[in-house]
Design goal:
283 residues; mainly alpha; two-stranded antiparallel sheet; 8 helices; 2% strand
Amino acid sequence: METPSEENQDQREDKRGCFECCIKCLGGVPYASLVATILCFSGVALFCGCGHVALTGTVTILETHFSKVTTDHAMLTDVIQLMQYVIYGIASFFFLYGIILLAEGFYTTSAVKELHSEFKTTICGRCISGMFVFLTYILGVAWLGVFGFSAVPVFLFYNMWSTCATMKTTMANLTNIDTICVDVRQYGIIPWNATPGKACGSTLGDICNTSEFYLSYHLYIVACAGAGATVIALIHFLMILSANWAYLKDASQMHAYQDIKMKEERELQDITSRSKECLNSYT
C-alpha cells in the first residue's frame, strides 16, 4: 500500500508530464501561419461583408437621386449583382485556402520534426509546397489589383462628401450653392443620357445627409482596409511558404546525406568484420 508521500510524488510526476506535453504541443503550433490566417480571414471578411452592403447602398443612391429611369442604369445593376456573387465566391475560396495553408504550416514547421522523429520529406511534398508558393504569389498580385479597385469608390464618395462640406463653409455663402454640383456621369458610372445625372445645391446636401450615403461611404473605407489587410496576409503567407519550402529542401538533403553516411558505416563495419575473420582464420 502506497504512503501519502508516494502518492503526492506520483501526482507531481503526472502534472509534470502533462505540463511537458502541453509545452511540446504548443511548440508544434506554427504561430506565423496562424497569425497570417487570422489576418487573412479578417481582411476577406471585412472586404466581402462591407463591400456587399456598400454596393447595395450605392445602387439605392443612384436609383433614387441620379438615374431615375431603370433602363439607364440596368447594366450597372447587373454588374453590381455579378460583383456580389463574386464576393460570395471569394469568401468561400479564401476560407478553404486559408485552412489549407494553415494545415501546410503545421506539417512543415520545424517543431513537427521534433515531435515526430520519423518525419521525412518527399518529392511530392516539395512540389506541393512550391505550388502553394506560386499560387499565393498570383493571389497576392490579384489582391493588389483588388485593393486599388476598392479605393475607387472611396475616392468618388470622398469627392461628394468634400463637395457637401464645401457648401457649409463661409465661402459658399458668398455664392449661389445651386452652382455647386456633383455629376456622376463624368465617372462613367451611368451613361450621359441618364436623368438627372447630377445633383446640385440643397439636393446634393440632402444626399450627403442620408443614411445610405453615410453608411456606404464608411463601409467602402472599411472594405478597402480589409483588402489591404488581405494583401499583407498573403505577403506574410508567401514568406512563410518560401521558408517552409527551403526547410523541406534542406531536410531532404539532410536525409539523403544521413542515408549515404549510414551505408558507408555499414560497409566499413563489414570490411572490418571480414578482415578480423581473415586474421582469425590465419592464426
